[in-house]
Amino acid sequence: MEKGIIALAAALAIGLTALATAMAQRAIGSAGVGAVAEKPELLGSIIILVAIPETMVILGFAVAAIILMG
Amino acid sequence: MIRKMARIEIVGLKKDLQNTIHELHNLGAMQIDDIRSLSNLLLQPLNLTYEMVQKREKVELINARINGFADLFKKYLVGSVENLEDNSTTEEIGEKVDQVTTIVQQFTQNRTALEEDLITLSKYQEILKLMAPLLPESARKPGNATVGALLHATQTHSMNMLVNQLRTLTQGKFEMAIVKVNGSTNALIGVLPREFVVSVEELLTKEKITQLVLPEEYSLLSASEALEMTTKRIAEDHRELDALEGHFRELANAWGPFLRNWQVTCLNLLDEFEIYSRLGETEFTFTAYGWVPADELQDLKSRLQEKIGEDLVINQLEIPKEMHKKIPVAMENSQSIKPFENLTKMRAIPAYSDIDPSTLMAIFMPLFFGMMVSDVAYGAILFFLTLFLAKKIKTGIFADLIKTIKIGSLWAIGFGFLFGEFMGTMGSSIGLKPVLLDRTASGSAITLLYMTIGVGVVHILLGLILGIANALKHKNKSHLLEKGGMFIGIMGLLVVVGATLKVIPAAGRWGGYALLAAGVIFLGISYGKTGMILGPIEFIGLLGNILSYLRIAALGLASVFLAKVANDMVGMMGNVIAGVLVSILIHSLNIIMAAFSPTIQSLRLQYVEFFRRFYEGGEQGFTPFKKRILDH
Q1: Which of A2, B136, B223, B373 could form a disulfide with B175 if both were Cys (CB 3.0 to 4.6 A apart)?
Q2: Nearest to B449 among A48, A55, A65 (CB)
Q3: Which of B38-47, B129-138, B280-289 has the highest average model confidence (pLDDT)?
Q4: Distance between CA atoms of residues B353 and B342, nearest Å
Q5: Is the CB of B547 less than 8 angstroms away from the CB of A48?
């Protein structure tokens, strides 16, 4: 029982943050592609903007790892 | 490295204007400022003389014609065009372009005529095919002639009236057939004695009916003979068109390389005319202002004065404070650093006062890539893949990324040995033992997380040291407090963690807290009135940036576990061949992901976490006035 709850907690930690990251990246990515099509020199800035929300899932991963192994 | 720039002023006599600009163009070392954008100058912008305007228009015209030929010949030219040793003058180029124009005009006229002829013949052919079987026998009788008319389907009523009129006009000696040409058009074919032809044609013209007129040479032929002749003519026209295409190809291959070279010559001349408008003038002199890399100034001076003479004065000017932000930035790095310089520029061209991060990026970006992939086999595969791709893609952002992955794959092999990984978990089966850590072992994930946080701390502290050095160099108090506060805060936090882990004496903990508090206070002061709120928030953001390096561990673990799944599949499938195939598929997917994801993540760590500590980014790169070269 306890193992199941631990696994569920880890899954929620990474799953919810992954969803949040995906939602943010969907919006930034689609706008970014449009911007790059108009101004290719913006590619560097767009990569940064798209990559910023990934911190959420990385932190989710760290929390999940700590829950499972800590 | 960012090159030191010198601001210069060139003053010369107007008689030397064209030679000076031409020589500056050849040297390609100076960026010439537009005098209209400079304030506090008592010079008027240079006006071109009538002869110069005439010459510019002539060159523009030649260039426009060459552009037209370039479009026309594009489909016939195969392979790249090489630079030719052709030093033709504008007049010579103009004459040769005229020659090509004459030939092309002749060919184009022939082609247009043939195409029009084909369209007409196809129409005749279509109608004759329908007519031939329906034409009355009387059409073959001597003294009889054929007339034809095209009628729209809506004119059916008028058609009956027309037939009656024709019968009356020819005293009943009119035989006819009506053929449907297409959905909306009918063709009326009539046979009548030749003496009525003129009056019938007059009637048709009067009634505004489109006549179906066969070419004169068909008028004495029967419909089937005309059809045969039309088919023959269509085939001949196609043959002639093919021959004409061949002539175009020959022409394109004979003149194409010259035209491309002349186009570059024309564009270079037009660039020189464009530059004149950036200069200033007095009654007898001209003046140019601009920028030169400081180490090239002496060479530029001596070469210009050698070519133009002592009348040309070149002065190095003081750079006023308000112009500091406008200094163009020229970067100079070795060939191995160039790809990273381009990646730096993709983020933003550095400001003149910035430290060029290209070399640091050349160290850390492939290193982080290698840490994420960390597999001997994957590294080797990626290395050979990039060797192959580098031959295909030689320029552009993808070429730069390929070079980055090539170096990163060597790091991946190195880290693969440290973690004992070969195609994931197959290392142990070939005798490869982990030197540092087994990433798949239970509990090693936490160690890996600590390791990557350590890497993040070092990388960010390095960025902060550069930021502090930059702030000291430019005597920027606010930046010094900001970067210094962050640095002290992190050092304090490290002391606290050290004391907690008993690496340093427990008493050191209070020193750590003091450093941490001082760091956050300095950081807050740098933000002014809102610092009380922004300081702690920024420091937490900085910790978030350090934790962001966890992605190195996250991606690495994802890669090794996917490889483990691929290897386990072989035994789980029941059938060895199917298992091996599925395993190869998963490994291939993993390698493709290993090429893309770590590159993007590594780039992000540089741009977001590292650059933000010291990199400002500028507005304008150094664009010297130099000659164009043939674009392959």
Answers
A1: B136
A2: A65
A3: B280-289
A4: 18
A5: no
Q: Nearest-CA residue of chain A relative to B611?
A: A48
Residue with tokens 């196609």: B238
At B184-237, the pLDDT tens digits run 777 777 888 878 878 888 888 887 777 776 666 666 666 677 778 888 889 999
Looking at the DSSP bridge assignments, the partners of residue B189 are: B148, B177
What gap in Å lies between CA B110 and CA B116, rounded to an integer?
Answer: 10
Q: Locate the DSSP E strands across B35-182.
A: 44-45, 144-152, 175-182
Count how many Cα atoms sit within 13 Å of the Cα of residue A27 in the half-sphere of its side chain: 7
* Amino acid, res. B590: N
- Does ipTM exceed 0.85? no
Three-class SS of residue B11? strand
Q: In chain A, what residues touch B548 (CB-CB under 8 Å)?
A: 55, 58
Rounded to an integer, what distance in angstroms lies between the CA atom of residue A4 and that of residue B545? Answer: 32
Contact A50, A25 (CB under 8 A): yes
Overall average pLDDT of the B523-551 stretch: 90
**Ranked by mean pLDDT, which of B142-151, B515-524, B593-602 comes out on top?**
B515-524
Q: What is the rounded distance in angstroms from the CA atom of residue B531 to the CA atom of residue B534?
A: 5
Q: What is the pLDDT of residues B51-74, one digit of tens each?
A: 889 999 999 999 999 888 888 887
Q: Write the residue in A52, A58, A61 that is nearest to B608 by C-beta.
A: A52
| Residue among A44, A45, A62 whose CB faces B550 most closely | A62
Distance from CA of B433 to the nearest CA of A (A): 23
Average pLDDT, chain B: 86
Does the pTM exceed 0.80?
no
Task: Give the span between the Cα atoms of B466 and B577, in whole angstroms.
Answer: 56
Structure tokens at B113: 């005529």
- Smallest Cβ–Cβ distance between A58 and the set B345, B442, B551 belongs to B551
* Distance in Å, alpha carbon of A18 to nearest chain B alpha carbon: 13
Q: Residue B550's closest chain A neighbor by CA? A: A58
Best residue of B342, B446, B552, B559 to probe chain A, by most A CBs closer than 10 Å: B446
Picking from B236, B211, B232, the residue whose alpha carbon sits closest to that of residue B221 is B232
Cβ neighbors of A22 (< 8 A, separation 6 or more) are none
Please name the residue that has the structure tokens 């893309």: B596
